[in-house]
């Protein structure tokens, strides 16, 4: 249940987190749906939690202390997309996922970032070192550079720039000035690189080349330009990609074509729950055969070096493009229907009172059908069981609600990641959650 509210009790006074808003674009209409009722079926998150822990730590369930360092979380109350998050909610989200630290920065603030940056700096100050502040800078604001310098003096550890919601392009002089400031202090600059960012990629590559001491992080697996810049990134030790994204195909391409040392684990809380994001990243890592040291670098070790101003480590080369093995057609079918379901959930009500979403989930489950008993078939059977949970959650309301869609969406995405990564094998299910669902 934690992902609805990121935790429990005192940590959560903010009214919950609407994860059906999962990666919804900035500026789209906020979701306004009826209040939720109690879900009829179990969450898949305990299952994902255990699978994630085991993937990190082998047989012992404890990940290395201090291992997790989320590169991308937000706090704020004024984003036009309707999403909000308090520092306590982010901390509770970390706790729920068994994670230690996060970079955090402001959500979109239409009236400017000075107050929001101060709120981030203040929240990080009292977080016992668990939250580390990036200053959000709007390069077209008249005081952009003064604000950047002010925040550095006040303890910011780098910058966040959002070309879409703050309406600028990377080739503008103030963007370069911010990157130059970061380079002087060997600090990171995190760029939104998701939807709606035309021609981000080469500009980011050029900035990384010109400012080798700046550490540029392209958020959301750089889905806007991943195919263009994966190859240049391989030879640029200061160009990174964060994993805060939902689509299995995108993350798999990232993990298969970018060197592991350039990939930084991130959730985008409150838009993406930490535990689900961790599961997705580790599943992709397993699918491309990422080594244990490389995984530790990806989930936080590299970001720890970056934030200390140390040189990033240079790990293994990118896996070969065929690292994922031969095409696995059932998995591709599952992932495409799951993506349809997610888009319908993002649109707000699951389409046609939720029936379109349910139909997409049913088709995804149908794509898991098999009569074989190969290892791949076992993974499909597990994905089908997860989809059954998703369907039960989607069916259990006559009026779709945000939070029930959330349960369904997270389960469906988990099934999508399973089905597209058969080489990573079935996940442990000691509590029999999936057996009960099948
Ligand atoms: Zn974000």
Short description:
This protein is of the alpha/beta class and 438 residues long. The chain has helices spanning 2-5, 45-57, 87-96, 114-125, 144-153, 173-184, 201-210, 226-235, 248-257, 274-287, 292-308, 329-347, 355-367, 375-395, 402-419, 433-437; strands spanning 69-75, 101-106, 131-133, 135-136, 159-161, 188-191, 215-218, 239-242, 263-264. The protein has a 6-stranded parallel β-sheet, sandwiched between helices.
Please describe the topology of this protein.
Blueprint: H1 2-5, H2 45-57, E1 69-75, H3 87-96, E2 101-106, H4 114-125, E3 131-133, E4 135-136, H5 144-153, E5 159-161, H6 173-184, E6 188-191, H7 201-210, E7 215-218, H8 226-235, E8 239-242, H9 248-257, E9 263-264, H10 274-287, H11 292-308, H12 329-347, H13 355-367, H14 375-395, H15 402-419, H16 433-437
């Amino acid at each position: 249940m934690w992902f609805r509210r990121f935790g429990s009790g005192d940590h959560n006074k903010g009214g919950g987190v609407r994860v059906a808003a999962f990666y919804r674009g900035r500026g789209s209409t906020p979701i306004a749906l009826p209040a939720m009722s109690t879900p009829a079926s179990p969450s898949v998150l305990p299952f994902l939690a255990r699978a994630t822990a085991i993937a990190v730590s082998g047989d012992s369930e404890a990940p290395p202390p201090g291992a997790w360092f989320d590169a991308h979380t937000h706090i704020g109350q004024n984003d036009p997309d309707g999403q909000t998050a308090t520092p306590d909610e982010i901390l509770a989200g970390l706790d729920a996922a068994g994670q230690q630290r996060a970079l955090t920065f402001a959500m979109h603030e239409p009236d400017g970032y000075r107050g929001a940056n101060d709120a981030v700096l203040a929240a990080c100050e009292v977080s016992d070192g668990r939250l580390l502040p990036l200053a959000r800078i709007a390069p077209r604001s008249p005081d952009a550079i003064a604000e950047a310098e002010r925040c550095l003096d006040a303890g910011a550890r780098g910058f966040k720039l959002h070309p879409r919601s703050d309406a600028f392009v990377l080739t503008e002089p103030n963007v370069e000035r911010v990157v130059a400031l970061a380079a002087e202090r060997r600090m990171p600059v995190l760029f939104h690189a998701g939807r709606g960012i035309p021609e981000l990629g080469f500009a980011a590559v050029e900035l990384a080349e010109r400012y080798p001491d700046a550490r540029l992080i392209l958020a959301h697996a750089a889905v806007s330009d991943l195919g263009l810049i994966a190859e240049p990134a391989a030879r640029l030790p200061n160009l990174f990609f964060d994993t805060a994204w939902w689509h299995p195909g995108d993350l798999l391409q990232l993990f298969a074509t970018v060197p592991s040392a350039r990939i930084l684990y991130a959730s985008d809380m409150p838009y993406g729950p930490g535990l689900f994001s961790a599961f997705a990243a580790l599943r992709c890592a397993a699918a491309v055969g990422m080594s244990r040291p490389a995984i530790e670098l990806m989930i936080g070790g590299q970001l720890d070096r970056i934030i200390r101003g140390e040189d990033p480590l240079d790990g293994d080369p990118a896996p070969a493009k065929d690292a994922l093995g031969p095409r696995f057609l059932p998995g591709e079918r599952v992932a495409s229907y799951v993506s349809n379901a997610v888009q319908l959930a993002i649109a707000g009500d699951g389409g046609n009172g939720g029936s379109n979403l349910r139909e997409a989930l049913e088709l995804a489950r149908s794509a898991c059908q098999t009569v074989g008993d190969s290892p791949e078939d076992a993974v499909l059977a597990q994905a089908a069981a997860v989809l059954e949970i998703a369907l039960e959650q989607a069916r259990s309301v006559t009026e779709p609600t945000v939070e029930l869609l959330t349960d369904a969406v997270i389960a469906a995405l988990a099934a999508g990641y399973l089905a597209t990564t058969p080489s990573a094998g079935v996940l442990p299910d000691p509590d029999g959650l999936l057996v009960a669902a099948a």
